[in-house]
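Troubleshooting log. The previous run stalled partway through. Resubmitting the same two chains, unchanged.
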Amino acid sequence: MSDAVPKIQIHGLKKSFGDKHVLRGLDLSIGKAESVVVIGGSGTGKSVLLKCILGILEPDAGSIKIDGVEATKLSGSARDAHLAKFGMLFQGSALFDSLPVWHNVAFKLIQAQGMPRKQAKERAIATLASVGLSPAVGDLMPVELSGGMQKRVALARAIAAKPEIIFFDEPTTGLDPIMADVINELIVKCVREVGATALSITHDMASARKISDRIAMLHEGRIIWQGPKGDIDHSGNPYVDQFIHGRAEGPIRMQVKRF
Amino acid sequence: MTLPYGTVSDVACLAPTLTPPSPLDTLRLLLLPSHRLVQIMNPFALIGRTFLEFLSATGRLAWFAGTSVMHCFRPPFYFRQIGRQVVDIGYFSLPVVGLTALFTGMVLALQSHSGFSRFDAESAIPTVVVLSITRELGPVMAGLMVAGRIGAAIAAELGTMRVTEQIDALTTLSTNPYKYLIAPRLIAGTLVMPVLVLVADIIGVFGGFLVCVYRLQFNAANYISQSWQYLEHRDVASGLWKAAVFGFIITLMGCYNGFNSKGGAQGVGAATTNAVVTASILILVSNYLLTGLFFADK
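Second attempt completed without errors. Output:
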C-alpha cells in the first residue's frame, strides 16, 4: 500500500450527547508511524474522539478510515480485526484489579490471540522490563502499585501485543513532574520500538512537546490549528497561544451554566 | 449584563432568532425556571413522562438481555470465568442460603404446629413443611438472599469497572465485555441457582424435622415417611425451574445496573441498590407467574 494513504483519516466527525454537541465536524489525518498529540481544554471532546475511533461510541456523522478502510459501523469479525490494531493507555490506567500485573499485561495475548499462559507470562515479564519494572512486579496486584508504576504497567499492556496504533489518554495526569517525564520518555521509546502510529490527547504541554511529531488543537468540536510541534510557539492562532501559555484572558472562555 | 444562569450572550444563543432579545424575551427566559416548575407540577406531564421513561427503560433492559443471551451461545466461551462465577455465586452462597433454609424450615414447623393443633391436624405438618419448602420458600428465600449477596456484588464490581474505564479497556484489548463479563455470570447464575435451591430444600426440610422430632416429640420415621408420602416430582422440579429463572434475573439485573452505571462512587452505589431492589421485585412477580403456570390445573 502506498505511504500516501494515512494510517488514520477522520473527516467531518460529529458526535452529540442530547443537545450537547461535542464534536462538530472534526477533520484529522495521521500518517503511518507518526505521533500526533491533540491538545485542548477539559470537556472539548478529546476522549470522545478516541472512543469514536475505537468504536466504543458510534459517531452521529462523518468518516473514520484506518488504512483507507471505513471503520464506523463495523461489526463481527471485521470489528475484531479493527480492534486488534489498537493499544491504549487510559488516563486512570484502567488496570483490571482482579488480575495480577503480569496477567494485565498479557491479557490481549491470552484472551484475544490464544497464546498459552506460560508463554504469555514470559512475554509480559519482558514487556514489563522494557518499561523499567522488575519481574517481581508481575506477581503483584495493581492495587499494590504506586500511580507511576500503574502507568508503566498500563503502558506495558498497551504495547505488549505490538499494536499498529497506540492511543494515549492524558498519559501524565496525576503524576509528579519527574515521573511524568519518565513516562513521556518511555512513550517515545516504546512507540519507536514498536513502530506504531501514536495519537495522544493531553493538556500537559510539556508532555505534548516531548511525545509528538505534530500537534493539533481541538476547540469546540473542531481542529482549529495543527502543525509541527516546533511551530506551536509561533502559530499565530490566539486560541493556541492562550492555551499553551495557560492564560485566563483570551478568546477561550470557560463554559458558564446555560438554561 | 449577568443573568442568574449565564450572560446576555448566552441568552442570545438560545433565542430562536438572530435578532437581539427583546426585554419581553429576556423576562420570559428569566422566568424559565418557574415555567419548568409548573411543567413538573403538571400531573399529566408527570404521568406521561414517567410512562415514557418506563417504556424506555424496559426497552433498554430487553435489548441488553437479548444481546447478553445471544453472547451466551456464541463463541468464544470463557470457561475460566464461568468456573470462577460458579464458585462465587454457588459455593460461597451456600452458608447464607443454608442458614436461611434451616431457620425457615424450623419456623414453618413451629408455626404449623401452633396453628394445626387447634383442629388436631398435626399429622399434616411434615407434608406442609416439605411442600412449602420445595414449592415456594426454598426458591424464593434462596433467590432473595442471593439477590442481596450476588446481585449487589455483581453491580458493584461491574459499576466500578465502568467508572474506572476497565470495561472500555477490555474493548481495546479485543475482548467483548458481553462475552467476558456478562455471559459467564448469566450462565453461572442460571445453572447454579437450582443446585443451591436443591440444597436449601434438603436443609429446610431437615430444619422442620429437627423441630418436630426433638422439640414437638414427633416420631422420626413417621415424619420422614409422611414427608415422602405426598411429595410429587413436580413439587421439587417446579422449585428448581423457578430457581433457574431467579438466577437469571439476579445476574441480569446485577450486570445491567453495573454495566450502565454512571457518575463515580454515587453511581455505583445507586447501581447496587437498583440491582437488589429490581431483582427482588422481579423474583416475587415472576414467582407468582411461574406458580400460576406450573400449578394452573390444581
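Takeaways: The interface with chain A takes residues 5-7, 10, 13-14, 29, 32-33, 78, 161, 164-166, 168-169, 171-175, 180 of chain B (CB under 8 Å). Chain B has two domains: 24-74, 77-294.
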